[in-house]
Amino acid sequence: MIRSHTVSESNLFCQMPLSPECGNPRYPAFFPAVDRRTQGAYNLKNTSRLNAEKAMKTPFDFTADNYDLWYDTPEGQAAFQGEWLCIRDLMKGSPSGWLEAGTGTGRFAHALAIGTGIDLSSRMLRIGRQKGLRLCQGRAEALPFPSAAFQGVLFALALCFMDDAKQALQEAARVLMPGGQLLIGMTVPESRWGGLWKASAHKGHPLYSRAHFRSITETVALAEQSGFLFTDARSALRWEPGTVPQEPVQALKGIHPAAGFAALSFERIPG
To answer: Whole-model pTM?
Structure first.
């Protein structure tokens, strides 16, 4: 059971928005200002946007400009269509009432018309804002939103990169309305696609080497420990990595044994 709680002051800096427009339309001004008492911990001399961005560099900042290139290839377009279909089929309610945590360049948020996104990478967010998205900079482990602010929270290929996935899920539970929906889109580590990710990680890929490759069973257990009930799933990417499917891309109900991508749906348990 998850108790509502107030985000600690020690995390306020990580939640600083880079845009005054950032936020859920229902709560247009609930982003805290930088807490001057916490600046020393981050070696900041002032609260300027430029210095804040420099202090919060992540590996994703250095790959941001090329991050979407693969998705623009025929193979990437097919993969994204499968991932998008899985998530779209499971989403409930109005997308404008949703939050995407770890939104990156906003590819999923834009395609799904999600209302709000948050990410730690300033360069990723800059690209996302060029798509007209409402985005802010911060950590999924310390969301700068009040409790019960959103109808749904999405982690699309992002939970595996969180420093503390359980804390991120607990924060998702906090900001969700009672009965709200959590969606986790993930690469299946036991699949051929997951094997490709893990091989890249072993070779020192700057992003995949930071990923925590959890099985579907482990991911469901982690979400249930964080205040959620598993309800449904979709899967896609049954074809071989490096190829383009000849058949129409589909989202299959449940988890197909050959699927490389899975979308897991959960309901927030009241309490």
So the answer is: 0.79
